[in-house]
Amino acid sequence: MNAESIAIVGAGVAGAAAAVRLAERGVAVTLYEAVHEPKPIGAGLLLQPTGQRVLAAMGLLDEALALGIRVDRLFGDTPSGRTVLDMSYRRFHPEAYGLGLQRGALMGLLWRRVRALGVPWACGAAVESFQQDGDGVTLQLAGGRTARHAALILANGSFSRLREGMRVRQSARLFPWGAVWTVLPAPAGFPQIELRQRFRSASQMLGLMPVGKAHAEDVERGINVFWSLPVASLDGWQERIGLQPLKQRMTDLFPEVEPLLAGLTEPVQLREARYADVHMARWHDGRVLAMGDCAHGMSPQLGQGANMALIDAHELSAEVGTGGTGGKDDWPEVFARYTRRRRAHLRFYEQASRGLTPMFQSDAVVAPWLRDRFFGWGGRLPYIHQQSIATLAGYKTGWLWGRLKL
Ligand SMILES: Cc1cc2nc3c(=O)[nH]c(=O)nc-3n(C[C@H](O)[C@H](O)[C@H](O)COP(=O)(O)OP(=O)(O)OC[C@H]3O[C@@H](n4cnc5c(N)ncnc54)[C@H](O)[C@@H]3O)c2cc1C
């Protein structure tokens, strides 16, 4: 491997997007991915206007639009018909929308671009540890191999152990709640323009999101189904709950889902998701940088994880080649500038995610009671609606003011 190149660990959204953005700026990068044959799998994503801007900068937005579905509105209510959420992107900007996309579709686009740019990509190459010194970083790979690079980007997800090798104050807490989810074919006439949620307190939540096609040649469009479960019930849910009783719980909460659930016939169709709340005092340590979920994993309630990963990659590339060191990047300096650039935006979303998640996924009683009484009412006030939708769109950098400039 080229010792002058930057190693990126993890070929998920963050790692693949960083490889693309850096390679486009002429930086030599090498991608390391633990999985032998990465397959484009994963939950449906709602890609926000900010993430869409990054895809546009990569020249990938048109293809993403052809695969995904424009989502104009988020609507959530209780079984008694009380509106909890009713947000329309158009009230943020007349041309704004969320893009419902299968994660596999997004990964397919990013990986194709990684290959087209000729980025060296080692699959089945799990990085086990690293050591940095004044000149570079040495990686230890599974199987005893080592590799030397000028700098290292950790983009290996919320549950990264490598992050602990960074001399940065950090914490990673498994959320007590996770989810099962799947993508099912949309039955004829099934609504496909809004993200629909139904809540009973914070202990039951069903989310339906149109996510379009996984591949250009597919005919069927999919609906992502998300069912919230405590982690304690998630382990072995097939035996503890079983598929039919689980489907019954879903239809009891939201009877309109029945025709869609006809496509859910086997427990293996439902995938389990666990997430961690990751906090780091800063995201750089000398020649090592953490990005994506590895740096700021959060619950999916705000729909920001993949979005943030794309913005991280874009903002890092904006710091490359600006230091004026004779064409050679001073990586510790580039990474420190990246931390300064990203701080306000990432801190806002970490706080918002931490504050909102217990209102949607928990055993709490008071928080969802307040949610049911005040969210729908507050959302009818123009200022609150504007702030809520700006938050969802991924633009906010502070509670009172501050907008991300992309
Ligand atoms: C149910 C659910 C719904 C979601 N909905 C949304 C949404 O609507 N909008 C949104 O923006 N986000 C959403 N997200 C979040 C989003 O999926 C994640 O934030 C995003 O995929 C994180 O990307 P990443 O690249 O940081 O990490 P990952 O996707 O976790 O990728 C990490 C990669 O690193 C590799 N790896 C791990 N360890 C090593 C190692 N030691 N060596 C080499 N490789 C390694 C892994 O194999 C993997 O490929 C959702 C998440 C879930 C679970």
Helix percentage range: 25-40%
Sheet having the most strands: 7 strands, mixed
- CATH homologous superfamily name? FAD/NAD(P)-binding domain
Q: Strand order within the widest sheet?
A: 6-5-15-16-17-14-18
Q: Based on the structure given, which CATH architecture is correct?
A: 3-Layer(bba) Sandwich
Q: Catalogue the unreliable spans.
A: none
Bound molecules: flavin-adenine dinucleotide
3D architecture notes:
With 406 residues, the chain is an alpha+beta fold. It has one domain: FAD/NAD(P)-binding domain (3-Layer(bba) Sandwich), CATH 3.50.50. 34% of the residues lie in helices and 26% in strands. The chain is built from 13 helices and 21 strands. The strands form five sheets. A seven-stranded mixed β-sheet has the order 6-5-15-16-17-14-18. β5 (73-77) and β6 (83-88) form a beta hairpin. α1 (13-24) packs parallel to α4 (103-116), α2 packs across α10 (305-319) and α10 packs antiparallel against α11 (331-360). The two termini are 33 Å apart. Flavin-adenine dinucleotide binds at residues 9-15, 32-35, 43, 45-46, 103, 126-127, 155-157, 162, 179, 181, 226, 273, 275, 292-294, 300, 303-307, 309.
